[in-house]
Amino acid sequence: MVWTSRPVSRLHGVLRAPGDKSCSHRALIMGGIAHGTSHFTGLLEGDDVLRTGAAMQALGATVTRTGAGQWEVTGTGARGLTSPAAALDFGNSGTGSRLMMGLMAGYALTAELCGDASLSARPMNRILTPLRQMGLTDTAEPHGRLPFRLTGSAALQAITYAPPQASAQIKSAVMLAGLNAHGTTIVEEAKPTRDHTERMLRGFGAEVGVSRGAGQVRTISLLGGQKLSAIEAAIPGDPSSAAFLIAAGLISPDGNVLVEGVMSNPTRSGFYDLAELMGARLGAEDTGDAAGERLIDIQSGSASLIGRNVPERLVPSMIDEFPILGVLAAFATGETVVTGAEELRVKETDRVKAVVDMLRANGVEAEEREDGFVVQGCGGPPPGGGLVETRHDHRIAMSALIMGTASQKPVSVDDISMIDTSYPEFLAHMATLGADISEGAS
Ligand SMILES: O=C(O)C1=C[C@@H](OP(=O)(O)O)[C@@H](O)[C@H](O)C1
Ligand SMILES: C=C(OP(=O)(O)O)C(=O)O
């Protein structure tokens, strides 16, 4: 069903960021194997995360919603995970499916895994390759796409692995398998990625070694057989979701947006660093911490943005923010160039193509590069007036709707249903700011 975002002269408001998707998956996964009962507040109730909760329940944990964003998880502890009665359906979620593959690898169980059309097109050999080296068997060969069956093992062997892609999902899958492997599992990251698995494992009582080597290389080590103990934790706000609201404030003719409780972690802050390089002045105030992460309130207002070459060192720390960066680039003066971001090709859709098509459909000059894209900024509101194909991709849908709040003509999208995977309150939050987004064509 088509939805349309119409230009408005002002976007003002104060909002609380929804719970972080990455941390919410990890809380349910680690809580589900811990000894004892964990309690979480502020958990993201997006479809991706709910499916991870359902999978943990099907594997033997007890996962209960006790209130809005409040979840109680009793882990399987010494009993371990057991084979689920039915297939585990991960919907649209790369993180849920991939982290759970790593986790399940270390238990004597068999599980069928599946997902929606988007997830079934995403590469899984990047996860299966190291897990097979540790002792997992599967039916994915040779295509490495869902659906397939996994058979884990209680006798996994630890490995040392250097993921060929900068991917927190690969790192996390190997570490979660390493929790139940014999020996010390080591992951060597050439380009550091989000470190929530390391931080949260420590929070649950595991010892995780992290050291820095030559260049940016980060080495993470984890001795198998460590026991996790239940925790009480508040999930920090999601910087990737907050980025949409902050961008809306920046492009609005009269923007003043304050987002509270956003996780401030250098492995996630690339979008904010880049927005400042483009000329945004973002207010940031420290407000404490949650689940081992710092929290800040971030404020944005109307800005004259300048196109930039995105420094490649920022790419892993803003990997989910390229669709909304494409929107900022369209409003900026001059050219924005993204390189070193080939991972965008294997997200919910090919995000290089999807971003370029989104911009072109709205009168913005943009072109693909093998590992990124180039946008010629309009030096103000882009024409708009297009219908954007979202291709099962929540971040394309939200980015296009944000563009429509300040472009010359309305911007429409062909579907919004998948926004629920990561940000169910998105439309309500945009309405609070004063956006005009509704069902139907313009
Ligand atoms: O570990 C995680 O929680 C995530 C890792 C990233 O994927 P990759 O590991 O494929 O880069 C990111 O795109 C995804 O939204 C969440
Ligand atoms: C890539 C994303 O998520 P996932 O890999 O978990 O599907 C995302 O949320 O932008």
UniProtKB/TrEMBL annotation:
Amino-acid biosynthesis is among the record's keywords: yes
Single Gene Ontology BP annotation: amino acid biosynthetic process
Domain (Enolpyruvate transferase): residue spans on this chain: 7-428
The protein's annotated pathway: Metabolic intermediate biosynthesis; chorismate biosynthesis; chorismate from D-erythrose 4-phosphate and phosphoenolpyruvate: step 6/7
Major place of residence: cytoplasm
Highest taxon listed in the record's lineage: Bacteria
InterPro entries, alphabetized: Enolpyruvate_Tfrase_dom (IPR001986), Enolpyruvate_Tfrase_sf (IPR036968), EPSP_synthase (IPR006264), EPSP_synthase_CS (IPR023193), RNA3'P_cycl/enolpyr_Trfase_a/b (IPR013792)
SUPFAM superfamilies: EPT/RTPC-like
Any one cellular-component term (Gene Ontology): cytoplasm
Ranges in a coiled coil: none
Chain residues that bind phosphoenolpyruvate: K21, G94, R122, Q169, R351, R395
Example GO molecular function: 3-phosphoshikimate 1-carboxyvinyltransferase activity
Keyword check for RNA-binding: no
Signal peptide (residue range): none
EC numbers, comma separated: 2.5.1.19
Family: Belongs to the EPSP synthase family.
HAMAP family in UniProt: EPSP_synth
Assembly: Monomer.
Protein function: Catalyzes the transfer of the enolpyruvyl moiety of phosphoenolpyruvate (PEP) to the 5-hydroxyl of shikimate-3-phosphate (S3P) to produce enolpyruvyl shikimate-3-phosphate and inorganic phosphate.
Protein name listed in UniProt: 3-phosphoshikimate 1-carboxyvinyltransferase
Record gene name: aroA
